[in-house]
Amino acid sequence: MLKHYHAIELKAEFEAEGSRLAEVQWLSKFASQVGLGLTIKIGGCEAVSDLREAVIMGATTIVAPMIETPYALSKYQAMVARCVTDNDRERIKFFWNLETATAFENLPTMIKQTTLDGFVIGRVDLCGSLELGRKSVDCNHVLDLTTKASELAKAHNLLVVVGGGVTVQSKKFFEQLPKLDRFETRKVVFKCPEALAHNADLYDAATEFELIWLNFKRSLYTRWANEDNARIGMLEKRLAASN
Length: 243
Fold this sequence. Notes:
With 243 residues, the protein is α/β, with parallel strands linked by helices. 52% of the residues lie in helices and 16% in strands.
């Protein structure tokens, strides 16, 4: 994905995905071995422990979820200013998730006050807040909202990332956005406009990586779950014999 499809980061979440620290460590290791960055979504606008762990794990992008109001954004920005050193601030990009109808309504005010690098438009949650189904992520209404948000961001020199329900059908959606900087699947972030030159092969590669990752996790936890089987069996026999 790095060599052929313009992947720039792998991705983990302390929020909805609930990544364990060990999982983020593995992803960070894989990313550094091949020269990719790492996006980590923290648990909220004041998730201080998540923020600190993300910095320690070597995140190159940190995202706060469900920022809907200027006040929530101010809390996130204050946390970053308080907890992140100047050196780390220079190497890490900070984004917030724009993913509800309320957030889109408040976006003009939030953009005027932000000290961050940009935002990620989460289309699945946006559809949920609009009472639309998940399959509506590529619909014209979502495209219209995303386009207006992107234009506003570019007028203020902010980066724009789009994710949520990304499939090959999303390619047309992405191509219609003004100066899209990145798009992301569940586990991979791609650079635009370069990645938009690819068709199904890119999206298949991202899906294949996620499948490999999930199989890796399953094998890892299965091995951990079974490592004490012999000891458990011996202790059970010992108790049975004493009774």
